[in-house]
Amino acid sequence: MSDDDDIKYVKRQRTLHYGSLEESERKRLAASSAGIPASSSSQLEDIDSDEDYEEQKKSAPSPPAAPLPTAGALVNKIDDDFFDLETEVAKDKVALLEEFERKKRARQINVSTDDAEIKRNLRYLNEPICYFGEGPAERRRRLKELLASLGENAIKEKKNEEEERKQLQKEQESTWYHEGPETLRVARLWIADYSLPRAKCRLEKARQNLKVPSATRAGRMVELQKRLQSLSAHSSQVGDTRPLSGCAFSNDSKFLLTSSWSGLCKLWSVPDCKLQQTLRGHTSYVGGVAFRPNVQHDEKNIVAMASGGHDGAVKLWSFGSEESIADITGHMPHRVSKLDFHPSGRFLATACYDASWRLWDLEQKTEVLHQEGHAKSVHCLAFQADGSVIVTGGLDAFGRVWDLRTGRCIMFLEGHLGSIFGVDFSPNGFHIATGSQDNTCKIWDLRRRQSVYTIPAHVNLISDVKYQRDGGSFLATCSYDCTTKIWSNKTWQPLKTLEGHDAISKVGSRVRGRKVSNLDCNGLNSTVNFSVSEIIYVELQRS
Questions:
Q1: How many whole angstroms from its chain centre is CA 483?
Q2: Model pTM greater than 0.70?
Q3: Parallel, antiparallel, or unpaired: how do β-strands 326-328 and 314-317 relate?
Q4: How far, in whole angstroms, is CA 186 from its chain's centroid?
Q5: N or C terminus of the chain with fewer C-beta within 10 Å?
Q6: pLDDT reported for residue 239
Q7: Distance in angstroms (rounded) separating the CA atoms of residues 345 and 384
Q8: Residue 190 has pLDDT above 80, yes or no
Q9: pLDDT at residue 451 above 90?
């Protein structure tokens, strides 16, 4: 064993130099452009870092020449093995500078120290007004940081957007007035000339009634109420094979017109309940009927009655003919639920389920007014006795009073919690009754522009309301609780409850000359009940 065998040679570790990747890559690219293979260029780097390069070169075999890499391969290698540190550092610096700038802006922003106002501003920005464990100081700091990010005018811009939204909503909810034809101007002037003298006569009559001693008026009212309490069913008649949907008395109370789901309208004599005429022409349900004022039974070939169907068809009828003499189009396919003649008989108003009501001039044979204003379907309407204004009620639970002479909405009836199914004007000209789905009947004062009394009338929805036509001493309401009730005016005490139906959809009352006739039409068993009191004849004749 030689001495050389005892010597242990320590293999020298290869020295690793940590430097810039960019510098190495530049050397590689420079070598490639000079025509030196990539492997040779890497060996050249080892020359600078290894002192024993010469010995390794002698002992190591010469490597085969490597082919030059293509440009695409070089790019792929760069993308796979290297990334730009300077770019990443630059991004971090930019983010850090932005954070410094934001904090600087936050320190310069002035916000209120009132915690309530800070919460309101956070709410404007759609941010939580309070975090768990957050105090006023932290909340104020959070608001500053939000304003620094969104801009100092963010709160003002949010407030402006909110104001614009409210203004737009207000414009959408405001009453829309259609531009009417020239015939509308003629109709308005005619209505003004017609209604003003009648209003004057009504006021003069009211002044004369005030001169009557209060004791005399109270005594008459007590006697009338006693006689109303004695009302009872006079007769009952089968009205149709399908449920009855509406009814109306003639101007002289000698005839009654009924409508049915069968599409037929029938004319009955009062009080013997004999069928006088059957009106045929509707192809669907008939919802509302009305008698034209100041038309006698012996007058032929003139419009005396009107009816509206669920398909939007409105037909005009005359005495003595089973076929309509005229049809009004323009509502289809929307339902016409109620119609009413102007006190003059010249105009016809129709309530339509397209959220509008129409006014038709029968002399000019044209539509003079198409009025919107309700958010939902218009179900009922009624003219004032003077003919100057009209009230409408809709399924949106609101009512509106319209001045026909100017076309403006002069009163908004707000207070019901359900759809309004019945409206009527008192003969005094300034009281309005409305019946609603909320089971209540409200009395409105046109002079005070508000509700003056609420009658908890029924235990189910109220389908119609009617004032006594001559004097308005009592009010009749009908309901789906199968009852019709009579209420005294001013005190609104219940005087009489009329029962006998399964459900009641319409009620009509008419005081004319010597007797009072109360009508309630059944919605299920297709009968019509008349209540006639001869005792009222004695009272009304003596008064």
A1: 31
A2: no
A3: antiparallel
A4: 33
A5: N
A6: 84
A7: 13
A8: yes
A9: yes
Please name the residues in contact with 469: beta carbons below 8 A apart, sequence gap of 6 or more: 427, 509, 510, 511, 512
Comparison of pLDDT for 280 and 507, the residue scoring more: 280
- Is residue 263 within 8 A of residue 313, CB to CB? The reply is no
CB 338 within 8 A of CB 380: yes
Token pair listed for 374: 């309700």
Find the helix or strand (DSSP H, E) in which 48 lies. Answer: helix 38-49
- CB 2: neighbour CB atoms within 10 A? 6
What's residue 342's pLDDT? 94
DSSP string, 99-132: HHHHHHHHHH----S-HHHHHHHHHHTT--S--T
Classify residue 212 by its DSSP letter. S
Q: Give the tokens for residue 261.
A: 């789901």
Total residues belonging to the chain: 543
* Per-residue pLDDT at 139 exceeds 60: yes
Burial 139-174 (b: 16+ CB within 10 A, else e): bbebbbebbbeeeeebbeebeeeeeeeeeeeeeeee
347-373 exposure pattern, b = at least 16 Cβ within 10 A, e = fewer: bbbbbbbbbbbbbbbbeeeebbbbbeb
Contacts by residues 447-454 (CB-CB < 8 Å, ≥ 24 positions apart)? 449/411, 451/413, 451/415, 453/492, 454/415
Beta bridge partners of 179: none
- Given a contact cutoff of 8 angstroms between Cβ atoms, the answer to whether 240 and 234 are in contact is no
* CB 357 within 8 Å of CB 350: yes
One-character DSSP codes across 372-421: E--SS-EEEEEE-TTSSEEEEEETTSEEEEEETTT--EEEEEE--SS-EE
Q: Which residue has the tokens 């007004």?
A: 129
Burial class (CB in 10 A: 0-12, 13-18, 19+), 534: exposed
Residue owning tokens 């409206």: 423
Whose tokens are 């737009």? That residue is: 168
Query: From its phi and psi, is residue 118 left (phi > 0), alpha (psi between -120 and 50) or beta?
Result: alpha
Structure tokens at 137: 């100081």
Computed over every residue of the chain, the mean pLDDT equals 78
For residue range 39-76, list pLDDT tens digits in order: 554 554 544 444 444 555 555 555 555 455 554 444 44
The confidence score (pLDDT) of residue 419 equals: 93
* 221, 511 Cβ separation under 8 angstroms: no
Which residue has better confidence, 93 or 312? 312
Contacts of 222 (CB under 8 A, 6+ apart): none
What is the torsion angle, in degrees rounded to the nearest 10, for the CA atoms of residue 499, residue 502, residue 508 and residue 514?
A: -40
For residue 294 the two structure tokens come to 């100041």
CA distance 458 to 438: 9
pLDDT tops 80 at residue 131: yes
| Tokens 């932005």 sit on residue | 98
pLDDT tens track for 321-348: 888 898 888 888 889 999 999 999 999 9
- Of 229-238, 275-284, 385-394, the one with minimum mean pLDDT is 229-238
